User: Fold these one by one.
Assistant:
Number 1:
Amino acid sequence: MRKALMVTVEVDPERVESRLGAGEMLCPSCPDGVLVRWGFARARRVVGVAEPVRPRRSRCRTCAVTHVLLPVTLLLRRAYLAELIWAAVAAKAAGAGHRLIGARLGIPASTVRGWLRVITGRAEAVRHWFIAVAVTAGVDVSIPKATGSGCGDVLGAVGAAREAIAARFGERSVIGAVTSARAAVACSGARLLAPGWPPVPMSGHPTPVGPDVAAADGSSSRG
Ligand SMILES: [Zn+2]
């Protein structure tokens, strides 16, 4: 399978265009490369977004590697807004089951169950990852206690990372408003639910406000 590389960027396509045009987007695959416009990725429907999303593709002037620029509201290979997925994780942490969550959010219960299974299955590793992000970004970070629930632990750790990022860079950064869902996307290189964890090697990344990067198979989209 051909692997496309992916970079998480802000939601506003005009800002993405202007940063690309100004040579302000750096290549994550080589030391000094600059990304330039290189067409678009396949348009995709995303639940929670009215218009189909058509991510910009870019190519490095130096190493010629192409990268899909995925907005920070989207997780790799998921056809739902990250905020919706995050709402499901939060509801699970609060004790709801996948059927109730699905009914509340208007999402098939089986889809919700799939998300929660992935999160629960990697909860400990995800918790460690985001606590490391919080400690890297923050000062006097208080480490959230284990809750006994996988989703609860992930929620707490991502919340701590969000707090640390907002404290350091402000509530609005290059990714826009710093929500937990966006922190979860940006600091996982959009791979929170993608196959394989950790999402990127710990050395050098994750940079908390991105544009954060990860090697990822960004070609397909599913539940
Ligand atoms: Zn490059």
Note: Residues 82-199 form one domain.
Number 2:
Amino acid sequence: MVVGRCELVVDVRPRPLLLASLRFFWLLLASKMDRSLQTASPEETLALGRRLGASLCPGDVVALIGLYGAGKTTFVKGVAAGMGLDPRKVVSPTFVLMHRYDGGKIPLFHYDCHRIADPAEIVSLGLRDVAREGPVVLEWADQVATFLDPPLLEIRFGFTGENARELTFATDDPRLAEVAREL
Ligand SMILES: Nc1ncnc2c1ncn2[C@@H]1O[C@H](COP(=O)(O)OP(=O)(O)OP(=O)(O)O)[C@@H](O)[C@H]1O
Ligand SMILES: [Mg+2]
């Protein structure tokens, strides 16, 4: 399946050994990506989310970690906008565990794990199966951290001022590392 920039290109030409090893070490480095970006307003956080949303693919799981008012939902609104979805429909799922947003090429699945009674519940939800249809973003992902398997993109939200936030991106996935590096 080809969705936006998510096309998987498999090059079957024989590759010189040196090139193959360089690629291997590049992937190894890429998978250890860790970077921080500052935003000075909600609009900037939204714009950052929009840039990420434009590059997300089915299968992607994005774990958001941060305290009340850190900007997680604001960021998800941006992600939705970047996927061609209506950001006004994005609100923290309070009475249900998950919201699904449709209207673009692929859906976005938005979880809020804050009020999850048993963290193990997230396993029975079959996140990876859900993500096959469209990317999954989880607010309060730290509440279910022990039940989340890689690969995923983790984003930590820190307060650096009244209207300033620091977003730290970390991932073990080479493609998501590349995406985060280009934000
Ligand atoms: N740089 C910023 N980025 C994001 N939000 C900001 C920023 N500066 C101020 N804000 C304000 O912080 C609040 C962030 O709210 P938001 O609902 O996105 O947080 P949240 O992390 O989802 O909180 P909760 O865990 O309660 O759901 C908003 O009121 C927003 O206007
Ligand atoms: Mg929220």
Note: The chain has six helices and seven strands.
